[in-house]
Amino acid sequence: MREYKVVVLGSGGVGKSALTVQFVTGTFIEKYDPTIEDFYRKEIEVDSSPSVLEILDTAGTEQFASMRDLYIKNGQGFILVYSLVNQQSFQVAVFNSDKIRPIICEIYTSRIGYL
Q1: Which domain of life does this protein belong to (predicted)?
Q2: In terms of DSSP H, where are the helices of 16-86?
Q3: Residue 12: DSSP 8-state
Q4: How far apart are CA 114 and CA 91, in angstroms?
Q5: CA–CA separation, 47 vs 26, rounded Å?
Q6: C or N: which end of the chain has fewer Cβ atoms within 10 Å?
Q7: Domains along the chain?
């Protein structure tokens, strides 16, 4: 069974955990409980083949920012979450996107080099 690693990134309090839990379990969490790091697994179908999503729900606080690069390096897919009513959370999403882009480009460049 294929496994895909997905990393959920964003500022604290924007709803990363709520979106992740809603997707994995179908239930919505209304109470805010700051996350340090949570892993979820969900079986899905990709191209008619059973697969597993390993979803890493990351901390949104600045004190765990040093771990962000490690999360990005290990991820295969990324979900950037921000709040429509919080401009700073959008700026964090742009920052995270800018951090992801060079790492992803490096991975694809090295893979293309082996073709």
Answers
A1: Eukaryota
A2: 16-25, 68-74
A3: T
A4: 36
A5: 23
A6: C
A7: 2-113 (3.40.50.300)
Whole-angstrom distance, CA of residue 94 vs CA of residue 31:
26
* Cα–Cα distance, 9 to 16 (Å, whole number): 7
Distance CA 72, CA 23 (A): 21
Nearest of 55, 15, 60, 20 to residue 36 by alpha carbon: 60
Higher pLDDT: 26 or 114? It is 26
Distance in angstroms (rounded) separating the CA atoms of residues 98 and 88:
15
The better pLDDT of the pair 7, 102 is held by 7
d(C-alpha 20, C-alpha 33), whole Å: 13
